[in-house]
UniProtKB/TrEMBL annotation:
It comes from the Bacteria. It is found in: Cytoplasm. Signal peptide: none annotated. This is 6-phosphofructokinase.
Amino acid sequence: MRKNIAILCSGGDVSGMNPALKHFVEYALKNSLNPFFVYDGYEGLIDDKIDKASYCDVAGIINKGGTKIGSSRSRRFMQKKYRAIAKQNLDHHNIEMLVVLGGDGSFRGMDIFYKEHGVKFCGIPSTIDNDIAGTSYCLGVDTSLNIIRTAIDAIRDTASSFGRAFVIETMGRECGYLALVSALTSGAELCLIPEVPYNLEQYEESFKNQIAAGRKYFLAIVSEGIKEDVREIAQWFEEKVGIEARVTILGHMQRGGNPTVYDRLMAYKFVSHAIDGLLNEQHDSVICYNDGGFTHKSIQDVAFQKYQLDSELLCHLQDLYNV
Ligand SMILES: Nc1ncnc2c1ncn2[C@@H]1O[C@H](COP(=O)(O)OP(=O)(O)O)[C@@H](O)[C@H]1O
Ligand SMILES: O=P(O)(O)OC[C@H]1O[C@](O)(COP(=O)(O)O)[C@@H](O)[C@@H]1O
């Protein structure tokens, strides 16, 4: 008898989830499995929003951001009694394997669910924050970086025309990855991230000298996880550096948009490895990507460790100020 396998999205949505759904249906059918969708993340698991999926459901979605099946953060799934209901719903549909697109919170939830009820699962790291330990890349971060790049390039147009400093805030929670990579690839003058302590005073003289030497504008990329408010950084530019300043908080535009080629391809590869793993005795793992290869890692190694920013990237941050 063909086995049933389901997929769900949990936590912040990312561009790349739809390409993953499309490949999930195709690859499941190719492996003689019946594919199912769980709508709205763990909330849908509890409310039995579970349906069989077919080729028709995934036609025309590969180029769409977000996720066709919805995502959520679920307070109820944190409680044992609701996880028991989720298990009953899966049993009702005869589903014994789950692919979960989410972040470390989602994986911790699934780990508990596996230990309580034995539902096999494979996590696919999916968050624009790129802050999951054990993998150098999370689905969606490439699209997000490209959206940020487009925004910063546009802001540069007005900054240079009007002679202003712009303080641009990126998402990322406690992780500075989005801000750091964006600063390096957009030619920003300042980058502030939670991982690296800073003192604005140390840039004052250099920035004033640059203005005296002809610099007309500044771009500062700031991660949402730093202690200071972005408006205070703008105020510092005005009062201490002596240049008019504006703030742009990029917000949720960073989570949407047409998935890049890289995110589409990675969605494809992640899903293939996730299903292969589930069919080959990987029952409680996350599929991770490092140095060009994929490996299944334990929840302990992924969801209970702190993500460390790549040391080479951090060196490049120092280079930003040593020119
Ligand atoms: N310790 C836990 N026990 C059960 N469920 C959890 C646990 N931690 C997180 N979850 C579930 O995972 C969901 C997503 O987690 P969250 O941290 O918001 O996002 P992400 O997966 O992107 O890190 C939560 O809303 C909750 O339903
Ligand atoms: O959409 P919300 O609930 O306001 O959450 C915003 C947060 O979600 C993110 O966009 C993505 O975080 P997760 O992938 O961990 O869910 C963060 O960068 C941001 O701080």
